[in-house]
Amino acid sequence: MSKSHGPAFRKELKPLMECGTCRGKGVICGVFHQLDCTACHGSGWVCQLTGDALPLEDLVPQLNMKLRNLAAELNRARHSQRGAQEQYEQNNRRGAGGSNYTGD
Ligand SMILES: [Zn+2]
C-alpha cells in the first residue's frame, strides 16, 4: 500500500474528440494500403483537452464507457420511437374503425 501513483479509485469519462489526423477513422491511407493511425492508436479518438492519444489502458475503458452511453441513448430513442409509433397506429385504427366493416 505504499504506491502513491496507483490508478484512480473510479474511472471517469474523459472528453474525447475525433482524431484530426485520421478524421476518426483510425487508419490513414498510405500509398499502397491503410496504416493504423499512430496519433490515436488506431482508435479514432484523442483526448479533447490535450489532443493526444490516451494510453491504451485508459483508452479502452473510455471507449467502453462511451459505447455504453451511446447504446443506452440509442435504446432510449428506440423505445420512445416505438411508443410514438404505437400511439400513431392506435389513433389510426380508431379513426378508420367501423367504416370498412364487411360483416353482414
Ligand atoms: Zn487517428
Task: Give me some keywords for this one.
104 residues; alpha+beta; two-stranded antiparallel sheet; 1 helix; 39% helix; 12% strand; elongated
Can you walk through the features of this model?
By secondary structure, the protein is of the alpha+beta class. It has one domain. The protein contains one helix and four strands, in the order ββββα. It has a two-stranded antiparallel ribbon with strand order 1-4. The chain has a two-stranded antiparallel sheet with strand order 2-3. The longest helix is centred in the last third of the chain and has 41 residues, at 56-96. The mean pLDDT is 84.
Query: Uncertain segments of ≥5 residues (pLDDT<50)?
Result: none
Structural class: alpha+beta
User: Which strands sit side by side, in order, in the main sheet?
Assistant: 1-4
Alpha carbon gyration radius: 25 Å
Shape: elongated
The overall average pLDDT, rounded, is 84
Helix count from the secondary structure assignment: 1
Largest sheet: 2 strands, antiparallel
Bound molecules: zinc ion
Short synopsis of the structure:
The chain is α+β, with helices and mostly antiparallel strands and 104 residues long. It has one helix at 56-96; strands at 16-18, 27-29, 34-36, 45-47.
Secondary structure layout plus pairing:
Layout lengths: L15 E3 L8 E3 L4 E3 L8 E3 L8 H41 L8
Antiparallel strand pairs: 1-4, 2-3
The site of zinc ion has 8 residues, from loops.
